[in-house]
Amino acid sequence: MTPRVFSIQTLPVSAWKNGQGITRTLMDAPGWRVSIATIDRSCPFSTYSGMQRQQALLSGDGLEQITPTHESLQLERAGPVLSFSGAVPLTCRLKGGAVTVLNVMFVPDRFPHAGIRSVTTAFIPDSIQDTIIVPVRGSWRVTCINNVVRHVTTGNIMRGRIQYIAPIADHDTLCYVASSCM
Questions:
Q1: Across the chain, where does the E strand assignment appear?
Q2: For the segment 152-171, what is each residue's pLDDT rounded down to a tens digit?
Q3: What is the pLDDT of residues 96-109, one digit of tens each?
């Protein structure tokens, strides 16, 4: 894929499978999906049998996911990444107002190394696959497989084959890197 930078706001909005929230799809391929969801109320999550899920907070005060056995999975700040089975029926409870999260869903047998990684310094992906860069804080310099250099900032996303990423400033930077092969 040709490397491309685009605004999150330009992506089409669609309803969740259960109708309880909205999402913007960044990548959708058989057995592998990346999206950004806006959650504006406490509600049940959609289930995806046979899928593994990862989720990371982009904005908001955080959320808590409650399993049927009352186990609590929490995202309280940007940086940490939750990993859980898509088959588990979770109920989401917001810590404050609305949140925005990055979601990755994948079939583990087909994509055993898929996921989200939090990055705060220079990073070289393990494999040059179609990769998605989602800045949370700061500006990032991205070198693509064809040696084209792009700059990506908060509110924008980059998708393409990536060789190397680095923050433009050395302080208070964070981005997520999502790939089918981390």
A1: 4-7, 14-15, 22-29, 32-39, 43-44, 52-59, 63-66, 72-75, 81-85, 91-94, 99-106, 115-119, 130-137, 139-144, 149-153, 156-167, 174-179
A2: 999 999 998 889 999 998 77
A3: 899 999 999 999 99
